[in-house]
Amino acid sequence: MFRILLVAVLCSISTLSLAFDPGGLFKNEILVSRDYEVMDKVSLQTAPVRYLDKERELSGYASGGEISVVGKAFQYVLDHQAADSNMSIYAHYHDALTKNGYEIAFDCEGMACGDSAGWRLLLGRELAGHTENQLYLLAYKGVGGLRGEYVSVYVNEVDDQPRSLVKVVTGGTVATVRSLPQSAGEVSLFYPVGEIEIGLKGLIVVEAIAQALNRSSGGRVVIKGYADGEPSERNAMLASGRADTVYRELLSRLNSSYADVSNGGGLVGQGGNRSQANRRVDLTVILPDEAVVQRDGASSRQEG
């Protein structure tokens, strides 16, 4: 019995040691606080903060999108050297995460993140600073977007000193995905070589499209998958597999029998052109009374 307990403790320590450790990335930083929960449900932001003011009694800041993740949860607050810029601190986090195989599922800077007062409301009173100085990212490492390790980083200033708040969830499972409805237009999800899994960013996009279709009685989505390289059976399977995965994920979120979702299958890039631009899935969203516009592509995985 003792041996079983000892093995369990050692496994737990090993798991903790593998977690992303913000304190180990910097020199001469001050660790303001470090909190740990053996099992917790953590909300991680996937979109800019928004301000609701349509109804006066319900006005205020709200999340523009979030995932709820259940797992071992860590929260770090670090004060950085005054000589370091917010951007350099953010870049250090970003580089460390991507070099260790994380996907950047969402990021924003300055006004594009929404008001800093809203972030303080969502993330805690340890934060302050001006809206134009803030930066945020959400990163993920795992398979299929729903299980793995999740890291969010928010950087701003307190009394002219840079501060970062980092949340890390290990052994995490996504319980819910919340997104605002997608506008009409085209969205692209990009993939690394040989990959067909949708990834966390893809799940966020699919949820937004599902929200739009569930609120519309005449919405349509056309899905088309692509692969790069020379035309071959394997590449054709990759292209169609990517489209099929997105198609299934979208159908599983629809509650409207009026939505029209068509899977156009897959195509292989012309002339053996090898690039991430040809490893993608295009989703064309058509909604009643909305003009279709081209959207910036969304990467479901970072190049690996």
Strand and helix layout:
Elements: H1 2-17, E1 30-45, E2 50-52, E3 60-62, E4 65-79, H2 86-99, E5 103-109, H3 116-123, E6 135-143, E7 147-158, E8 161-179, E9 185-190, H4 199-214, E10 220-227, H5 233-251, E11 260-268, E12 280-286, E13 293-294, E14 298-299
Parallel strand pairs: 9-13, 9-14, 10-11
Antiparallel strand pairs: 1-4, 2-3, 4-8, 5-6, 6-7, 7-8, 9-12, 10-12
Helix pairs in contact: 4-5
Give an account of the 3D structure.
The protein is of the alpha+beta class. The chain folds into 2 domains: 157 residues, no CATH class; 119 residues, OmpA-like domain (60s Ribosomal Protein L30, Chain: A), CATH 3.30.1330.60. It contains 5 helices and 14 strands. The strands form 3 sheets. The protein has a 6-stranded antiparallel β-sheet. Strands 9, 10, 11, 12, 13 and 14 form a 6-stranded mixed β-sheet that branches. Helix 5 links the parallel strand 10 and strand 11. Helix 4 crosses helix 5. The longest helix is centred in the last third of the chain and has 19 residues. It is globular and about 55 Å long. The N terminus and C terminus are likely disordered.
